[in-house]
# Entry
Amino acid sequence: MSLQNPIFIPGPTNIPERLRHAMNVPTQDHRAPDFSDTFLPVLADAKKVFGTEEGEILLFTSSGTGGWEAAISNTLSPGDKVLIARYGMFSHRWIDMCQRHGLDVQVIECPWGTGAPADQFQAILAADTNHEIKALMVTHNETATGVLSDIGAVRGAMNSADHPALLFVDGVSSIASVPFKMDEWGVDIAVAGSQKGFMLATGMAILAISQKALAAMEQAKLPRTYFDFRDMLKANANGGFPYTPPLNLIYGMRASLDMLFEEGLENVYARHHRLAEGVRQAVSAWGFKLCAVSPDLYSETVSAIYVPEGFNSNELTDHAFNKYGISFGVGLGEMADRAFRIGHLGSLTEVMVLAGLAAIEMAMVDLDYPITLGQGVAAAQEYYRNT
# Structure
């Protein structure tokens, strides 16, 4: 197996050489006066990616899952009621986490391939006249099914119900790749990770927290130590960290933000749409179906693709890896053996995507899939050439 880039999983994503070099720094004193010169501008500039002016940015040494635990433990108390819809593997994992924290979880079961059910949220919240529901939790981009939900519609549902619940959003595979409007959507905590749209190594959870969520923090009773917002906010105010920070990732974050701003966030989002649409054109040319049930739900960062009846998607991704040394996303949860995933986020170009499509076509032909070589590649090429 070569250590080639690109890989076509929905994260961790390909790390640009510029960011690899930015993270390749020698040990430094994180308590020295000059640490804040790098650290504080990173916090300030990250707000632009989250679409917030009023929120606070906090960084924790963990994956995005740790960021979710931080969100829960800092704002809720044992027995609090929360509302979550299950429509993929990652919304399922947040349900599991809330249950393990002793929360009263009301689950809306949705077919996989659909998105956040704003209408059902509205009905349930409107009926909750005593405001027992303390938080609504939504996965923005469901990586298992390639579904991007409408957070603006969720906020509209909450407003229509005139409900004061906190709104938490998992943006791990969306933020820095598609538009995110924290202030406009009234998001109270948004969670991202260093290893997706920010194109860095795994190991840093990036949270944006509203003033409303910070006020709830003072009443929360769930235990927290390492993930305590209060300790982090206090240390950040003086340009420091309450414990040893992920210094290499913070330097990488500085370079990542620079890259995003140099390209321009709107251009970043347009590039992701363009790459995703090329993949969708290939899927259509193969005669395959996406897991996302309608175009308004199509993710710009990952496409989950059903394989034809009688084929095993995990055998396909294994074959692509073993014969051609290239990685695609396996099917997760209900998608296991039924669908594979092409990640098209982070540091990718049209040419890189075409290479991935060509590789997966070779693997499919090897396994006697009902396609011909070049079928999907040509469709993507035509789209990229003419747009």
Observations:
- The longest helix spans residues 265-286.
- The two ends are 35 Å apart (CA to CA).
- The first strand starts at residue 56 and ends at 61.
- Residues 265-386 form a domain with the Aspartate Aminotransferase, domain 1 fold (CATH 3.90.1150.10).
